[in-house]
Amino acid sequence: MKFNSNTLRRWCRLVHRDLSYLFAGMVLIYALSGIVMNHRDTFNPNYSVSQQRLTLAAPLPDKDT
Q: What pTM does this model have?
């Protein structure tokens, strides 16, 4: 397979562009996760999930009445 210089140059530019987009996205994700992990106790330290179970003594009335 024979490449001329324009075809090879175009192919290299396209691969370089696509790899740059990929690694730029990875750097952004890494940066955001680092910020979140570094400041995780300042976002909401009192956040908690609680569950309550309630029981009703009398049956509920019908919706039609």
A: 0.55
